[in-house]
Specification:
Number of domains of chain A: 2
Number of strands of chain A: 10
Largest interface: A-B, 42 and 31 residues
Structural class of chain A: alpha/beta
Radius of gyration of chain B: 23 Å
Oligomer: heterodimer
Distance between the termini of chain B: 16 Å
Shape of chain B: globular
Structural class of chain B: mainly alpha
CATH architecture of the largest domain in chain A: 3-Layer(aba) Sandwich
CATH topology of one domain in chain B: MetI-like fold
Distance between the termini of chain A: 83 Å
Radius of gyration of chain A: 24 Å
CATH class of one domain in chain B: Mainly Alpha
Largest sheet of chain B: none
Strand content of chain A: 5-15%
Shape of chain A: globular
CATH topology of the largest domain in chain A: D-Maltodextrin-Binding Protein, domain 2
């Protein structure tokens, strides 16, 4: 080999080494669900286009929440992007823990993000997290069982109709429960459902002075209605049922109705997993004629922790993964039913997506949820199935444990509400709200 | 005089032992079986036990999605390193407590054990801040140190119990023959305590292998062991039980095999000194 060739090879190696050294790697903490796992599969395309490598830390939702909270509060700097929800975003944004997403590129089109999602992921009008997918809750029901019961589900039913239909569809001999709902303890499980339901009964967590409201008639009505309906028409042991348990029951044809996250629609209509895939209808979550429905609003969103040294690369990734181009990439490879839903207005204007059976009801559910006006009477907090204050998660977990004890027949509604009132007021007093 | 045990009673005892053993093993067996089912079969009601279409699809998906070997290697380093380091520190400590006790030895032993009574989450923030300052977050070295410290009281307690069984006169004889302290511990005490040390090592490897609080909270993308591997397949919103079971089976397989082959030493060590 001549000296010229040796020098050429050496400089090529040096250039490669320099490129490798300058390649950036970002670390993303995310939650384990179908859409997020799918995104990980497409990461190579982002790397190929930008030269930015991506490392994933995938965790179960509750573990992830604890992990990222520890890291951001201590400025640990372990992650360049964190997957967080509507509960954390406004609180962390207000604390200055997140990088504002206020200078996204024109092509990204921030204005295309559904207003309900952008509102829930902002603080003082500044967006702090970009929604990867969004969800509300709605009724999923068995069209065949509804017909057999001689009833017709309206697009926007009331709780009294739902309770009546649930009782009519219940067939204990054939192991069919009229309705399956979350009863599992935990603020994000049964706590989320009963809080969203209570809004439609005129209840609220706090009055405008941050006093707990569990001693009101509205909360008593909510809980008594829920317990009576579930006793008559719910599955045995519903006190321990969460999303997965109800999904499993519904997919096996054991629920007449299920009110839960809109994201479940793609699971129950998937013929590979669901035995009732072709017999599912959708309707808005019920109301009580008081002007507020019982659906919630949630988004899994990508945020950049303040203090990361790789904010630009992180922003590039967020722009790519929450863009219309990404949605089209997934649609082209896996079909429109598998694109991340509930984040962008343009998705619901796309004629291809309009053919997806649950698309319109998902959009209607999202549009009917307003985190800033979630209760009939005025309340001091933002959020539908939660109050966006740091203390809420701890308080609501305890309160939901008391409610689950009622569902399990271990205590009365009155006792649970009295305990919830005391727990909440004590915690709020200790935190200095009262 | 040994009490005669009737053959009927012996049969009942054997059946009872097998029954209890099967009950304890059943969740692991169920996890292994579920790992070969489809997601639909995994949630079937009534559950399917053996008669289903066995599939390796879940293992294939898990292999595609995760770098199993990296997690496995991290687990080996963390469990092996923390146990080894713990043994190196615990042998002289247990020797001193067993053979040259002071009037405070019992108090020190109790104090060490009391650190195990503290809920781990209670010290999460101090440890996390310490790790940030020392640059140990998401490092294998940091986890080796933390898990060694967590398991050190158990290692010392176990070794102390084994060492107490060894007559002090033997060590005294070695000293009279001119053995130094180092030689006494290395060449006289340690060989006699090999069964005890072996079972201590095995138990601590298992404890460190399964530790899921610190290994999840102090790691990110690089140092996560098999506990982080399993956690990435758990989901409260979506049915991934079959994949989770495949990941769990892959995570527990190495330690299960190790436990299976070393069960004689493990049982011997754990029951050492239980009956005098």
């Amino acid at each position: 080999m001549s000296m010229k060739n040796v020098l050429g090879a050496a400089s090529a190696v040096a250039m490669l080494a320099a490129t490798a050294a300058s390649a950036e790697t970002i670390t993303i903490a995310t939650v384990n669900n179908g859409d997020m796992i799918r995104m990980q599969g497409y990461t190579d395309q982002f790397t190929a286009a930008t030269g930015i490598d991506v490392e994933w830390v995938t965790l179960e939702e509750n573990v992830l929440r604890q992990r990222v909270t520890t890291d951001i509060t201590t400025k640990g700097g372990q992650f360049d992007i964190m997957t967080i929800g509507m509960y954390e975003t406004p609180i962390w944004g207000a604390n200055g823990w997140l990088v504002p997403l206020d200078n996204m590129s024109a092509e990204y089109n921030v204005g295309d993000i559904l207003p309900a999602m952008a509102g829930g992921l902002s603080h003082d009008g500044t967006l702090y997290a970009a929604p990867f997918y969004g969800e509300s809750s709605m009724i999923m029901y068995r069209t065949d069982l509804m017909e057999k019961a001689g009833l017709e589900m309206p697009d926007a039913p009331s709780w009294s109709f739902v309770a009546k239909a649930a009782r009519a569809m219940t067939d204990r001999e054939n192991d069919i429960n009229g309705i399956c709902l979350r009863g599992k303890a935990g603020w994000g499980e049964g706590g989320a459902f009963i809080t969203a339901m209570s809004n439609s009964f005129g209840a609220r967590w706090f009055d405008e002075e941050w006093n707990a409201q569990f001693d009101t008639r509205e909360w008593s009505d909510t809980l008594n209605f829920f317990v009576n309906m579930m006793s008559d028409s719910g599955p045995a042991g519903y006190a321990t049922n969460g999303f997965n348990e109800n999904l499993s029951l519904f997919q096996q044809g054991k629920c007449g109705m299920w009110i839960d996250a809109t994201v479940a629609a793609s699971f129950v209509t998937n013929p590979n997993d669901s035995t009732v895939a072709d017999k599912v209808g959708f309707a808005l979550a019920p109301d009580n004629g008081m002007g507020v429905r019982s659906n919630w609003l949630w988004a899994w969103a990508l945020a950049i922790p303040a203090g990361t040294q790789k904010a630009d690369a992180a922003k590039q990734f967020i722009e790519w993964s929450t863009s219309n181009e990404y949605i089209e990439l997934v649609a082209a490879n896996e079909g429109w039913a598998n694109v991340p839903p509930g984040a962008r207005t343009s998705l619901y204007e796309n004629p291809n997506y309009k053919d997806v059976p649950f698309a319109q009801m998902t959009l209607d559910s999202i549009l009917s949820a307003d985190p800033n006006n979630s209760t009939v009477d005025p309340s001091p907090y933002v959020g539908i199935q939660f109050a966006a204050i740091p203390e809420f998660a701890g308080i609501a977990t305890e309160v939901s444990q008391e409610f689950s004890a009622v569902y399990a027949g271990q205590q009365s509604v009155e006792d649970a509400l009295a305990k919830a009132q005391a727990i909440t007021n004590d915690a709020m007093e200790a935190a200095g709200y009262r | 005089m040994a009490r005669a045990v009737s053959s009927r009673r012996k049969s009942i005892n054997t059946a009872l032992a097998w029954g209890i053993g099967l009950i304890i093993f059943f969740p692991i067996l169920w996890t292994i079986l579920t790992s070969f089912k489809t997601e639909g079969q995994a949630i079937a009601d009534p559950p399917v036990f053996l008669f289903f279409d066995w599939t390796l699809e879940n293992y294939s998906i898990v292999q595609d999605r995760s770098d199993y070997m990296r997690y496995l290697w991290n687990s080996v380093i963390i469990a092996g390193g923390s146990t080894l380091l713990g043994i190196i520190i615990a042998v002289p400590a247990a020797w001193s407590m067993a053979f040259v006790p002071s009037k405070r030895t019992k108090d020190i032993l109790m104090w060490m054990l009391s650190t195990k009574m503290l809920p781990a989450v209670g010290v999460l923030y101090p440890i996390y801040l310490l790790f940030i300052k020392l640059g140990l977050l998401d490092s294998l070295f940091g986890l080796v140190i933390v898990l060694m410290l967590i398991n050190l009281p158990i290692i010392i307690w176990m070794l102390y119990t084994y060492f107490k069984e060894i007559p002090g006169e033997i060590l005294e004889a070695a000293r009279m023959d001119g053995a130094s302290l180092k030689s006494e511990i290395l060449y006289v005490l340690t060989p006699m305590a090999i069964p005890g040390i072996a079972s201590t090592i095995l138990l601590n490897v298992i404890l460190a292998w399964n530790e899921a609080f610190w290994t999840l909270n102090l790691t990110a993308a690089k140092a996560g062991p098999l506990t982080a591997f399993i956690a990435s397949y758990s989901s409260p919103e979506g049915l991934f039980y079959a994949k989770l079971s495949a990941a769990s089976t892959m995570a527990i397989a190495p330690i299960l095999i190790l436990g299976w082959f070393s069960q004689k030493q493990l049982v011997r060590g754990l029951t050492f000194g239980a009956v005098k």
